[in-house]
Design brief:
Number of domains of chain B: 1
Largest sheet of chain A: none
Oligomer: heterodimer
Largest sheet of chain B: none
Shape of chain A: globular
Strand content of chain A: under 5%
Helix content of chain A: over 70%
Radius of gyration of chain A: 25 Å
Number of domains of chain A: 2
Order of helices and strands of chain B: HHHH
Order of helices and strands of chain A: HHHHHHHHH
Distance between the termini of chain B: 25 Å
Structural class of chain B: mainly alpha
Largest interface: A-B, 54 and 48 residues
Helix content of chain B: over 70%
Strand content of chain B: under 5%
Number of strands of chain A: 0
Structural class of chain A: mainly alpha
Chain lengths: 375, 163
């Protein structure tokens, strides 16, 4: 191997490869599956945002407008129907966001479990089964949550819960059971006391790319937390008061047949919802990207590129991670232009993550070749 | 395992268990009732306005606003406990890379752990007390987390790379 490539240490003295990343080992399954989950979750998030969430927000605004007009026309049934439609649209939105968020968080958990594998006192064969069960549940839950809106209660044996929810819950239970079992393994390892001497090449690594991601990730979390603290301290209570006032104004003005004033209140209400949404999105994305960067810092020894390329992809990931939340926030002032730049930031994160996944893939290929493993 | 690392790893697992316990209890016994009540109050507000029964309409809308205030905080408390526990666990795993003396690292870990538990607690406290107490606790706890994160970031910067 060329000296300019990164090497994970220590290595098995007989085979010349790290023990903990052997072919089809639990750690390898969790690393590759975890990064894939995060990637798919991010891509789905982009698709949901463009094709479902934005039209959905417009639909909620239209339903609110219909509800206010129904008040002016003294049509109580139409008002109720408009509000029910808002509930339907909110459920659609909520399930999409949940699917996106759960897939990414399960990806983080998979990487976390991968890190802990050397310290989990469970036989490797069972660890592999647990890894597969975890990934199965991690894909099943978001898929089920996504389908809740479309499947509803069709062919369901239960009165209130549909098949999609049942399968989503099954996925969630699988994930919880695996985490609980892994924790018992960790507990068994810690109880070994002085005999617990497992070492790990990932935690021992002190490479500069890992440090860049650790520092950058922690700063991103810090920025997200500072922004969240400012938002909670300065804006949140004010926005909540204004939100309630605007609903009160739009209903009372509509009842007085003053539709221009009611419409003005609706417009301001929609603006306010947008402001709240971008603030929350900027806060959440900054912290989530920070956590992702910190997690990926540990796996850099497995990203098999020349040093300058691993650093380049780490830098790209951090750049995208700062661009997206910042320009999401700027959408309030710069509109679609800022939204477009934020999307480019998201794309940078996805490309960097994909490049790291390919790097891990290359590393597994190198290991397997050394072991004489054939596809 | 160093004391600071142990504090973060075990403390974060405790916060995670607390968060999950709260989440399961909330989802099973409170969330659906809260959401049903919120939707129903909002609908009643609009329907009563259409019927020109304005005092009832305004009262229902005020109830919806109150329910929303509580719902947002209950969900936020759960989300922040879970998210911060995950962050602390990840930081705990790599905490040996924070290049300070163990005493300083322990203080950073303590600030992070205390802030991570107290901040969501303060948010939840706001649902039954809108006074200065919960807001002051929220500010103090978030300052602990911010100070802890600054310390951790600075510690990571000080680490000597192996190559």
């Amino acid at each position: 191997m060329s000296a300019s490539y990164r090497v994970a240490a220590p290595v098995d003295p007989v085979r010349g490869v790290p023990d903990s990343f052997a072919p089809l080992s639990a750690r390898r399954i969790l690393v590759v599956g975890g990064i894939a989950l995060i990637l798919i979750g991010m891509i789905l998030g982009d698709i949901f945002a463009a094709f479902i969430l934005h039209p959905n927000a417009a639909g909620i605004g239209a339903s609110l407008s219909a509800g206010v007009q129904a008040i002016a026309l003294q049509d109580a049934q139409a008002a109720e129907s408009a509000l029910q439609n808002i509930g339907y649209l909110l459920e659609n939105r909520g399930t999409k966001v949940d699917a996106h968020v759960h897939m990414i968080v399960f990806g983080y958990l998979a990487l976390l479990l991968a890190l802990l594998q050397p310290f989990v006192a469970i036989p490797e064969k069972r660890k592999k089964f647990l890894a597969k069960m975890f990934l199965g549940g991690s894909f099943l839950l978001p898929l089920g949550v996504f389908l809740v809106h479309y499947v509803g209660l069709a062919f369901s044996p239960l009165a209130a819960i549909g098949w999609a929810s049942i399968f989503a819950d099954l996925g969630g239970v699988s994930v919880v059971l695996v985490c609980a079992y892994e924790l018992t393994g960790l507990w068994r390892y810690l109880r070994q006391g002085s005999q617990a001497t497992a070492t790990d090449e990932l935690l021992a690594d002190r490479g500069s790319t890992g440090r860049l991601l650790l520092v950058g990730g922690t700063l991103l979390v810090l920025l997200g937390f500072l922004h969240g603290a400012y938002y909670a301290g300065v804006d949140l209570f004010r926005f909540e008061r204004e939100d309630a006032q605007l609903i009160s104004v739009m209903t009372s003005r509509a009842a007085a047949n003053d539709l221009p004033a009611a419409t003005q209140a609706i417009d301001r209400y929609n603006q306010l919802q947008g402001t709240e949404a971008v603030n929350i999105a900027a806060h959440a994305h900054s912290i989530e990207f920070g956590v992702l960067a910190i997690l990926l810092a540990f796996f850099q020894p497995y990203v098999f590129y020349r040093e300058k390329w691993t650093r380049f992809w780490a830098f790209t990931l951090l750049l995208g991670s700062i661009i997206l939340p910042f320009f999401v926030l700027m959408e309030l002032h710069w509109g679609l232009l800022a939204g477009g730049i934020a999307d480019i930031g998201g794309l940078l994160v996805i490309i960097a993550l994909l490049a790291m996944l390919v790097g891990v893939w290359r590393y597994t290929g190198k290991l397997d070749a050394a072991l004489g493993v054939h596809e | 395992m160093s004391a600071s690392r142990k504090l973060l790893v075990i403390g974060s697992l405790a916060v995670a268990v607390w968060s999950m316990g709260y989440g399961i209890f909330y989802a099973a016994f409170a969330e659906h009732q809260m959401l049903d009540g919120l939707g129903s109050a909002l609908t009643t507000g609009f329907v009563r306005a259409a019927e020109r029964r304005m005092p009832e309409s305004q009262s229902a809308l005020a109830e919806a606003a109150q329910r929303r205030f509580v719902y947002v905080r209950q969900v936020d408390a759960h989300g922040h406990w879970g998210g911060l526990a995950l962050l602390l666990l990840i930081l705990g795993i790599g905490f040996d890379r924070v290049a300070f003396a163990e005493h300083t690292r322990f203080l950073i870990a303590l600030a992070l752990l205390a802030g991570s538990f107290l901040f969501p607690l303060a948010v939840l406290w706001e649902t039954w007390d809108r006074g200065v107490g919960p807001r002051s606790l929220a500010v103090f706890a978030s300052a602990l987390v911010i100070a802890g994160l600054c310390g951790a970031a600075w510690g990571f910067v000080r680490t000597e790379p192996s190559r």
